[in-house]
What does this fold into?
Amino acid sequence: MTAMNTPLPLHDLASAIGVRGTGAYVLTVSEPGVPHVVHAEVVKEGDRLLAVVGAHTADNARRQPRVSLLYVPREAGDYSLIVDAVATVEATADGPRLILAAMRAVLHRSGPAPDPSTSSCSADCQPLTLGTLGRGRPA
It folds into this structure.
């Protein structure tokens, strides 16, 4: 598959999230190691990301706090946004909420990278800077 001629993507996480909206898939791993995927509203609040989730997702994040977010492509030829984060679970009146500290973020799509020296994998991957969203990273 050949990469589409799309404008060069944004290079920081906050901007990439800003153009995608709040809907993302939250990926966790259950006790027996089974992937668990849910769609959630993920909002940026200051230098952190927040997602209201269900009990299963919260339990998984308590056991294994390394989670991922997947923002799907907006149209054919667009990039997916993948964010690896460390989650802290907080109880709210609306249910459990994940407080997410971004550790790594990449725009990804199938096809060869336009400039292989900028890609972190064999596909068209564009690593993003975390900016303020990386401030809450654990040591």
User: Anything to note?
Assistant: Residues 13-130 form a domain with the Pnp Oxidase; Chain A fold (CATH 2.30.110.10). The helical segments are 13-20, 55-63. The radius of gyration is 15 Å.
